[in-house]
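Work Package 3 (structural annotation) set out to generate three-dimensional models for the target panel prioritized at the project kickoff. During this period the team completed the workflow that converts sequence records into discrete structure tokens, so that structures can be stored uniformly alongside our sequence database. As a representative example, we reproduce one entry of 1036 residues exactly as it appears in the project archive.
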Amino acid sequence: LKYQILPYSNRLTDGLRAMMESALTARDRVGVQDFVLLENYTSEAAFIENLRKRFKENLIYTYIGSVLVSVNPYKDLEIYNKNHMERYRGVNFYEVSPHIYAVGDNSYRSMRTERKDQCILISGESGAGKTEASKKILQYYAVTCPASEQVQTVKDRLLQSNPVLEAFGNAKTLRNDNSSRFGKYMDIQFDFKGAPVGGHIINYLLEKSRVVHQNHGERNFHIFYQLIEGGEEDLLRRLGLERNPQQYQYLVKGNCPKVSSINDRSDWKTVRKALTVIGFNEDDVEELLNIIASVLHLGNVQYGEEDGSACITSDTQIKYLARLLGVNGTVLTEALTHKKIIAKGEELMSPLNLEQASSARDALSKAVYGRTFTWLVNKINTSLTYTDDSSKHYSVIGLLDIYGFEVFQHNSFEQFCINYCNEKLQQLFIELTLKSEQEEYEAEGITWEPVQYFNNKIICDLVEEKFKGIISILDEECLRPGDASDLTFLEKLADTVGGHPHFVTHKLADAKTRKVMGREEFRLLHYAGEVNYNVNGVCVCVCVCVFNLIVMCMSENKILNQCFDREELSDKKRPETAAAQFKASLAKLMEILMSKEPSYVRCMKPNDSKQAGRFDEVLIRHQVKYLGLMENLRVRRAGFAYRRRYEVFLQRYKSLCPDTWPNWQGKLSDGVATLVKHLGYKPEEYKLGRSKIFIRFPKTLFGTEEALETRKHSLATKLQAGWRGYSQKSKYQKLRTSAVQAWWRGILARRRARRRRQAADTIRRFIKGFIHRHEDRCPENEYFLDYVRYSFLMKLHRNLPKNVLDKSWPTPPAALTEASEHLRQLCMQNMVWSYCKKISPEWKHQMEQKMIASELFKDKKDNYPQSVPKLFVSTRLNGEDINPKVVQALGSEKMKYAVPVTKYDRKGYKARPRQLLLTSSGAVIVEEAKLKQRIDYGALKGISVSSLSDGLFVLHVLSEDNKQKGDVVLQSDHVIETLTKIAICSDKINNININQGSITYTVGQGKECVIDFTPGSELLVAKAKNGHLSVVSVNS
């Protein structure tokens, strides 16, 4: 075993600070790191003394087997940095000193290796450090788990959920400046890589009564003070708040607006940043702060009395509330001063008296705040939801931060719920501990010895049993017709469970007990001791009744709309009491914990004054009792105090036996058997399992440790002697090799000198050649000229043109100008030849057509540039577009090109759709199945087209040809392609005329007509007043 010597503050050296708990001589000073190894384990005094020793040495963590006991140091210890996290990462649980990180890492590794969900149960009194412990575990996972950008977002949200929940759920109490006033269970979800990818939070039993009342020296929830102290002036003005907590009735009852250890202004900035990280938008934050401010305004609503009925004396608060909550002011006023009564099926409004109105106001405040807190938790859960549908299977580690067993001078219904929760957790702990112990014994083949322990199932049944349990009786009494009171409830308890051995009332107690019990109290004998509970106000306290839910259901505030469901108003079911709700949620929590592999952290506080270094033995004894630590230790020590795997035990102690040192070659079990036989273990002191050794008494282990300490000194002497021999031998070998090294250094030096001489000669020849570079070739410049030529050729080799369009060429030296030109021409010829060789016949034909189009129309017709990137096609009409009769009429003539065109009549210029077919002998104009006109290429005199971007062109025919009726006016959407095809087919490349302004053409009998072209915003072809054909062409 290892024992840790943690810092003596200023008295220990850095070397000692780095040591672990490995020196048994320190045991008397720092105690044992595992209570299981206490010799007198049944003594409570020995238990507390071990805690005290470790606490005085700043060793705040101690184990009871796998249970971690943590004592709040009330000061910062340098044991939570990244180096400490790495020290515990992936290390066996017992290989390092006790730490919260060891518990977190052990749960994480168990989850990864065993593929079973884990949970860590953290319990203790208020101020014992439960919340800090859960935060340390979260920080450990955030630093040590695998990360990505998405995972980092989840880590940030998990960490930032803490300050938000603390602001809305924590408060300053007499025991703790940051006391959690609710129970919290958080699931951290991990993917198959072990990275945290999501989370889920369940909250339990928020202390809503704190909203309207605080004991002297305590405060309301932190968020109210953070808003008032840290909120911007504009924000406070909008919310109607003043920067003075004394102005608000809900903040003055504890008479403690300021706390030296709390910086509300700084915490406000932290909370606002955390809300943004979690995913709250500005609207969410605004609605949330409206609700917080409205609770403060509700507390300031003042009542007067008129004719025995309550009335509100000032409208100021109502105006603020109406605006902040988004409700009608008149309706809200009525809700705060009246109640609704249903009589004979009719709804009647009955006025409230002063006391009832104040209760209605406070009930509304508690309901609004309590439901808003639940909404806040659900909102955080939404931001933590694991959204990756590709892998719906994930592992979980749960963190339970919940109230410990509480006993005060006056114990109310709240303490009853808390202690009932701890009874259930203790029952779960004992069952799971005994179960794991028994499973380990059976797995190792060790006989299980039954353990006698107090089974608190009898107490749990007393509280939760159906029909006969305390909660069932309380439910029945609160919800039955008639006047239920606290005393009738107490009488019914005495009648129903009066004979139970763990239940006593003043009426049933003996004379001695009656002296310490009030008539309104009953006593439960818990696993941790006796507790008297006062029933005053219990029947009022447990009824979940919110006055006038109708008002909140009508709210325009989006958060309140989600918090107050209209279905509640129409629900005819009997409402559940708070006790029944808590019992149901606790049963669900037990199901969650039973489905997971648990680890335990028991938190304790050393004193009530929060002073560092002060150890209050009375308070510690109180907590040891109420946390059930002695019971835990007794269960754990019922069998064997120490157990380790064979390989671990043999590796640590093998040096104590000559047969096992330095290495054991056989089976591990045989090696351990040989070792313990050599050490003289008696049969009753140990058992050998299948893979572990079990040692019954701590003194047996301590004797082995002391033998190991003695053995270390002799081993150290042998190691030192071996090292000195090795060191001297190394020195001799260095001396022997120094001569060889000197000879080798000489060779290397001569080589370097030769290279320097060669470099100097080269530089001299280069400089001399540069001086004589303009002279004819001679011995002085030949090296330089050769180098210049070589350099140019190599540069040319690296920078040759990449294609025929690349005109770049390195500038040659004067001596190589002519050669450079020849090389450039050869290079270009080679690239042209290579390019032409790669051109396909189809591409060649395309390029030839494009070349003709360029010669005809480049810089002459406006729409030519648009046609350049578009490839010419073989035809614009498919076979099914041309009537079969036309194909039949053409006979054997091969069709080279076909395109749809528009023909304009010679007289009225009416536009008619036609098809222009180019054959080997002529151009044919077709109307559906008719050949309307055929123009032989021999009769085609020329082609005219405008210089603008229109698609009109004129085919001029010979006037002597009697078959023709004159020139033909056509329009094509592909005018460049069409005219190029006509020019190629008719061999009329030189007969295409591009005209500026107008085109003159002839019709039948030698009559001339004119087409006028003008630029414009849109294409327009129409007959002008002067009888010409007017074409408005779009500017390109």
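Residues 1-25, 541-547 have pLDDT under 50 and may be disordered.
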